[in-house]
Protein: histidine kinase
Amino acid sequence: FQDEKISVPDYTETELITDAFNKMLGRVQSLDTSRQEFVSNVSHELKTPLTSMKVLADSLVGQENVPVELYQEFMQDIAAEIDRESKIITDLLTLVKLNKKASNMNIEQVNINELLDLILKRLRPIAAKRNIELILEGFRPVDAEIDETKLSLAISNLVENAIKYNKDEGWVRVSLNADHKYFYVTVTDSGRGIPEESIDHIFERFYRVDKSHSTEIEGTGLGLAITRSAIMMHHGAIRVKSQVGEGTTFSVRIPLTFID
Ligand code: ADP
Structure:
C-alpha cells in the first residue's frame, strides 16, 4: 500500500459553495413539491363532500311538490356530508398544530396505566355497540414524561381504528410494558388486517386501504398521520404488523424521559 497515493479532489472554494447551494436548492424544491402535493390533496378531499352536497341540493332546488320523506332523506345526506367536511377540517387543524415546533410540547410526569385506562373507558361504549371486547394488559406501574394530550390522541386513534376495522364480537388488546429506557404500548386487534402492499402507505395523509369502504366505514385517512406525528414529537417510534383476515398489531415505543 506504501506506493499508493490517495488522491484528494482539489475543490476550489467556489465549487464548494456552488455544491452546497445546489444541495440546498434541491431540498427547497422537494419541500415545495411536497407542499404543493399537500395543498392539492387537501383541496381534493375538501371538494368531495362539497360536490355531493351540491348535487343533493341541486336536485331539490326548483322542484315542486317534493315528497316530505325524500326532502328529509336528502337533508340528512347533506347533514352527513357537512359532518364529514367538518371532521376533515378538524383533523387537518390537529395535524398542522402537531407539526409545529416541538416547543409547544406540554411535558408532564404521567402515569401511563391511568392514561390507557381512561382511553379505554372512553371508547368502551363505542366498542360495546358491536360487542367488541377491550382488554387492558400491563400491571406494572409506568410513569413517563409525556405530553398527555398528544399521546392520548395518538393511542386513541390506534384503539379507535382497532375497533372500526374489527368484526362484530371481536377483541382489542392494549398492553403496556417498560424497560429502563422506554415504555411500549401495543394495540392488537382481531380485525380485517392490512394488505402487504398497503402497509407502507397507511401513515400517509389521506391514505385509506380501500377507498370503496370509505362510505361504509367513516374516516378521513388522517388518523395515523396524526398518530405518527404525535409519537415523533416524543422521539418515539411506531411499527405495524398485520395479517389479512387475522388482525393487526401496532407497537409504539416512547422514551420514559423526554429529550428536548
Ligand atoms: P381512517 O380515518 O381512514 O381510519 P387512518 O389514517 O387512521 O385513517 O388509517 C388509514 C387506513 O389504514 C384506514 O383507512 C384503514 O384502511 C387502515 N387501517 C388503520 N388501522 C387499521 C386496523 N387496525 N386494521 C385494519 N386496517 C387499518
User: Anything to note?
Assistant: Residues 157, 161-162, 165, 189, 191-194, 202, 207-209, 219-225, 248 surround adenosine-5'-diphosphate (CB under 6 Å). The first strand starts at residue 107 and ends at 111. The helical segments are 13-58, 68-98, 112-128, 148-164, 196-199, 223-233.
